[in-house]
Amino acid sequence: MEPHVAELKQKIEDTLCPFGFEVYPFQVAWYNELLPPAFHLPLPGPTLAFLVLSTPAMFDQALKPFLQSHHLQSLTDPVDQCVAYHLRRVRQSLPELQMEVIADYEVYPNRRPKILAQTAAHVAGAAYYYQRQDVEADPWGTQHIAGVCIHPRFGGWFAIRGVVLLPGTETPDLPRKKPPDCVPSRAARITLLEGFNFHWRDWTYRDAVTPQERYSEEQKTYFSTPPAQRLALLGLAQTKEEPSPIFPEFPFTTFTKKPQIPSSAQSWLSPSISPPVSPGP
Fold first, then answer.
1. CA within 13 Å, CB half, 91
2. What DSSP designation does 20 have?
3. Neighbours of 275 (CB within 10 A)
4. 75: which of 65, 85, 95, 176 lies 20 to 30 Å off by Cα?
5. pLDDT along the chain (281 residues), means of 10
6. Does this model's pTM top 0.90?
7. How far apart are CA 220 and CA 163, in angstroms?
8. What burial letters (b/e) apply to 115-135, b meaning 16+ CB within 10 Å?
């Protein structure tokens, strides 16, 4: 890894990792080459970017302290605001750099996602994006099968939170790191994709590999609760939909569904980031 990339990565990790996040560098070109032009990031190919994901530890190390220490009169989704707060700290830690942060849920006015999070995770080497095309002679006929990322240490017990782009910072020699293929057999891939698409409520697809850590029972209860009821679960009042005045750099969505992507797009443009109704990150 180039010295300045390693230094930037270390600074971002020092800001995020103590709070249950992980960071992976990648080039914009690696992402764009898998997608049609409409989904490209509008930056030169060698532009440096970092994928940010949360591990099971984020719930206790970031979310709970965040809720206890901030007065959020306009609270919408607690996790989104917590993640935005920590990404704001990344911006503050590198004031000399031009930086753009894209959260996983952000969309353009036409509802097109600003970032395809699972594709970004795959090209960054963070998690392998298993799709229907990865199963030879698949058994699903005309059924729609959404893809899912599996982390080599956490299986499905993690969430992709966003991407940090550094326009003007280019890394033409950044070595490309492939994500570990931790579900290599056809049978295991079928089990994984069927579990994700048809049986996600039982959480078992997340154990496609033996995880180093799983979500706690408390965390599973939180993410299993319908989004509109999560504030009540935390003992917080529901508020009207509006951006938080505390962190104006990061607008928040209020319990909206994940954006849908046209089915006519390539396989890397999975029609949904998750099944139509999901227990949560």
1. 17
2. T
3. 18
4. 95
5. 83 98 98 97 98 98 88 70 94 95 95 97 98 97 97 98 97 94 98 97 96 96 88 67 38 35 45 42 76
6. no
7. 25
8. bbbbbbbbbbbbbbbbbbebb
